[in-house]
Amino acid sequence: MATAAVVGLIFAGCAGSGHSTTHRPAGDDVDRRAMDHRFTSPEAFASEWNSAARNQWQKPEEIVAALGLSPGATAADLGAGTGYLIEFLRAAVGPEGRVLALDVEPAMIQFLDERKSDGGWDNVEVRQSAHDDPGLGSATVDAVVTLNTWHHIAGRTAFARKIHAGLSDDGGRFVVVDFIAEPTPGRGPPMEMRLAPDVVIAELEAAGFSATVAEETLPRHYIIVATRSSGGDTASKP
């Protein structure tokens, strides 16, 4: 890939609304708050969501590796939230690269803007996105990652088609990281909201991707790597 774009997008709202809550490692009580309310107070979540202790089980290095990023890439995190993945993405693309951080919640956008200013994230662009559209221009990014978000999105195949159209060339990757479809006590969404990997793969393939489950060592998550191909471009189809 010539470049790689990692877009951060977090959808906030009720569990049954199709809105997404993302980057949510918290326990059951905080999970319910996240799904039942908008994220109007990012500071209430940031200390846990951005904790270094999270790295031990979230394995961000494995997530970033699945994206296949290289120095100079333009990158994206679909569900930026309080910015947990941003530093890892910045390290992967280097100072010449670019990271997009997208979110639908205005309070999260403000929080990310402040982190950008305080942290010197000169190669990060923070954008507010829509619930049904990642907000990518045609062929403008090379890789997109979504962490703890995909199970909250309504119309996932249609959404995936827009991601497919936003990837800049064949071989561009869309990486989905989500909770396994079995109990993970104290963390993650209710069982009825979880998606088995084969369901996600079917959705992504219907959107024109080639998709496979990646090897990983995450105790609570799976990683799916979907690759763009022009022969499977269905972005303009209904």
Characteristic key phrases:
single chain, 238 residues, alpha/beta, Rossmann fold, eight-stranded mixed sheet, 18% strand, disordered N terminus, disordered C terminus
Describe this structure in words.
With 238 residues, the chain is an alpha/beta fold. The protein has a single domain, classed as Vaccinia Virus protein VP39 (Rossmann fold), CATH 3.40.50.150. The chain is 30% helix and 18% strand. The protein is built from eight helices and eight strands; from the N terminus they run βααααβαβαββαβαββ. Strands 1, 2, 3, 4, 5, 6, 7 and 8 form an eight-stranded mixed β-sheet that branches. Helix 7 links the parallel strand 5 and strand 6. The N terminus and C terminus are likely disordered.
What's this entry about, in short?
By secondary structure, this protein is of the alpha/beta class. The protein has 8 helices and 8 strands, in the order βααααβαβαββαβαββ.
Count of individual domains: 1
CATH superfamily: Vaccinia Virus protein VP39
Mean pLDDT: 82
> Number of helical segments?
8
| Alpha carbon gap, first and last residue | 28 Å
Major sheet = 8 strands, mixed
- Tally the beta strands: 8
Q: Could you give the topology of this structure?
A:
Layout: E1 7-8, H1 28-36, H2 43-49, H3 55-58, H4 60-67, E2 74-78, H5 86-93, E3 98-103, H6 106-119, E4 124-128, E5 143-147, H7 156-166, E6 173-179, H8 197-206, E7 209-213, E8 221-228
Parallel strand pairs: 1-3, 2-3, 2-5, 3-4, 5-6
Antiparallel strand pairs: 6-8, 7-8
